Amino acid sequence: MLGRGVAITYLSLVVLIPLAAVAWASGEGGPGEFWSAVTTPEALSALRLTFGAALAVVAINAAMGTLIAWVLVRDSFRGRGLVNSIIDLPFALPTIVASLTLLVLYGPGSPVGIDVAYSPVAVVVALLFVTLPFVVRAVQPVLMELDTDMEEAAASLGAGRFTIFRRIILPNLAPAIFSGAGLSFARSIGEFGAVVLVTGNIPFETQVASVYIFGRIEGGDIPAAAAVSVVLLAFSLLALVGMNVLQGRWLRHEG
């Protein structure tokens, strides 16, 4: 009982009370003020860009994260340990440093001849960088524990590689892929540091919701910042709850 009380108290102080304070600040002016704050042209533009980029990142991460995990688990090559370590670099690197790195690499005067800075593409690139590990690290342990006997049996019966992947491997990986994708989405819609430099934060073009919120705070409009924050919070919570529900259903089905 004591441990449970300490855990709940800590969770409340660190997470629940601050979130409740933001929700309270967003509703100080009533539902009308809340709706007005989240439906201004600039706010809607920032939200559309944020959710559009997040969905694109989820789709790319689901495919490429699964592929990278597959290569790390099923292929043997020199430098695999180094590549495996690099996957976690976005977790360790300060996001503002990531934004500066991407600006140098993909901005004006790019050493690789690719200039996507200050465009919506830069938003997607920045979010892909910071969310890369989620799907990879979710899928990798599942692949490591996956029994290959069924794959070998299917191959011996004449099944092709694509059929084996679609009918045997993918159903086992699906919960992990959805889990990583859900975390990628939640991280993407709230990311600030990685996009703040490389996107230029141009209203109606490259300004994402987190930067819009920062601008409202600098302008002293706390209720508007809180209102847009609540929208992001709600979608993040829905993504995480949906992810947990799907995982629970898969576990019950397997059981």
How would you describe what is shown here?
- Keywords: Membrane, Sulfate transport, Transmembrane, Transmembrane helix, Transport.
- Residues 47-243 form the ABC transmembrane type-1 domain.
- The chain crosses the membrane at residues 49-73, 85-105, 117-136, 176-202, 222-246.
- It holds the Pfam family BPD_transp_1.
- α1 crosses α11, α3 packs parallel to α7 and α9 (161-190) runs antiparallel to α11 (222-254).
- Helices cover 78% and strands 0% of the residues.
- The model has no long low-confidence stretch (mean pLDDT 86).
- The longest helix has 34 residues, at 41-74.
- It is built from 11 helices and no strands.
- It has one domain (2-254): MetI-like fold (Orthogonal Bundle), CATH 1.10.3720.10.
- The protein has 255 residues and is mainly alpha-helical.
Low-confidence stretches: none
* Helical percentage: over 70%
Order of helices and strands: HHHHHHHHHHH
Q: Which of globular, elongated, flat, extended, rod-shaped describes the shape? A: globular
Please count the beta strands (DSSP E, at least 2 residues each).
0
> What is the makeup of the main sheet?
none
What is the mean predicted local confidence, pLDDT?
Answer: 86
Helix count, DSSP H or I runs of 4 or more residues: 11
CATH architecture: Orthogonal Bundle
Structural category: mainly alpha
Strand content: under 5%
CATH topology: MetI-like fold
Q: In total, how many domains does the architecture comprise?
A: 1
Termini separation (Å)?
A: 31 Å
Gyration radius, to the nearest Å?
Answer: 21 Å
CATH fourth-tier homologous superfamily = MetI-like
So what's the CATH class? Mainly Alpha
